């Protein structure tokens, strides 16, 4: 069964993240309540801001009077006095700016205290993870404070500048207001309408960017597993989808950004030419040349910059504040990494706005879920390839691949038969390989045939190329010369997904991912798999106790809570349940004790029609195989255990101290007369 197709990237990002619908207005209301409870700080802010209004007021008035009563009236001294008064207003404004910042601090510091207290209390209650607490106590609360301060300053500057300019225009000539106010109000109305969608689009860009970053992080960290599972196409498709989503979100934001420009044009720029166009009409009604110049000063020096700051800053600050506050006290989900969409998340993770917002209450700032916390998620909670694997999409489901039929019994190998006529599971023809042109070749002309049902152990000292051989056999490395055939097909010509259908490679560090036991064990199987089949796989390799302890197929797997051996057992069960004809164990049982290792290897050797290549880290492992390949520098010896003993001094050394002579060997391999494994 093919996996459900990945959702088509939408032309426009979802306007409102579902779980956070209504969070904006609720934040605004609770923010207002927060401010109203601090009337003294508000009053101080208003008082000092009035001085800024006075500065604005004097700015245009001073220019007008300097012209009308000074320079144009032939009294330059009066003109200079008015200009001096205007300069004094500027000094007054500078003084008030410092006080305004202090008053703003009186409003925003309590917010930070409140946030810090809440996070600390959560940490003490043990409901927050350490990395999350550190980030929330530091970066996130600072971001909330800065965004809140920015919002207050932008709003305060605009309101008090507007008040000063309107008062000044009224003082110069009320007729000026008739020209200036209508476009200004129209611009503000347009901006007011565009602000909520703008903030949503800005938020969508932020979330798309975070999701892409999280997805890329997981993908890069899990590259080896992605390659081993043949999931490159899938990973590329998902990453590409995130890129497209971010692109679409950015385009949507840019489209809505046009309204911001329109609003600025109407409210800030249009009054200037209007004043010039209506100058004759205004002059007829007694407006002086100085008053006109003063009005132009108000527009260009005060209103336009204030509008610019408001329209540029408010949407971004609002969005940042909303995002940070909802994360500190989550009402929804954080950045979505490469993983199942929200609907697939565990119910506890998808919890909606059940809690209050960060403004309202110091205690109880909630721990984000591993997903909701985005980059704060405990790093160990979901190992790198998790998201890719957790999608439950087997590599066979990669578009374009030919998936084997669903419902293959565990341990039964799809398309493989041990009978005559079946192609070998693995064949190496004249294999030559060196890492780089100048390195010594690890293999030069190695021939090897591993038939369906065969069991080969690769042994040799460290660094002789055992893992390299496994990677070559898996098609993960390309030979310098010669050929690797998987099930009779050149590995070089296989797509990643097709190669993954023909072999499973288990490295020393086995990966399990956050999800259910079922998802972990069934990952390499196409289509739905009955639990009984998964339990059978677990039993076969000796993982039943781990599965039981985790709560059966539906139990949750937390990789960081498993020992290395337990992780290996789950990975072995997954490989055993896979329909691939060839299993390559590259020291994949190194964390198991000898008895557990023996049980797992025998289980793989018994897989009907399945071939096994084991990179052995214990000589007992080699003893169980029907053929042994001894890597000893340029010399390769292969054959049965007896033949290897006879022909390879190295193998004799490795086997020394093994079973005492004459003792019945419990690891003696089953007779395998049909196995034509050979090395030239
Ligand atoms: N990516 C690489 N680039 C260059 N040289 C490499 C690379 N990987 C491995 N080698 C070298 O190739 C040789 C064989 O490495 P390989 O890991 O296959 O040996 P091994 O027999 O599996 O060793 P061990 O038993 O210690 O795991 C070593 O000398 C190693 O340093």
TrEMBL record:
Keyword set includes Nucleotide-binding: yes
Ranges annotated as biased composition (Pro residues): 1-10
Segments crossing the lipid bilayer: 42-67, 79-98, 148-169, 175-195, 261-283
Keyword Disulfide bond applies: no
GO molecular function: ATP binding
Record Pfam families: ABC_tran
Primary subcellular site in the record, as a coarse category: membrane
Extent of Low complexity compositional bias: 11-24
Domain ABC transmembrane type-1: from-to ranges: 41-305
Annotated membrane topology: Multi-pass membrane protein
Biased composition (Basic and acidic residues): 662-680
Compartment(s) of residence: Cell membrane
Start and end residues of each stretch annotated as Disordered: 1-24, 333-355, 656-680
Protein name: ABC transporter ATP-binding protein
Species of provenance: Streptomyces boetiae
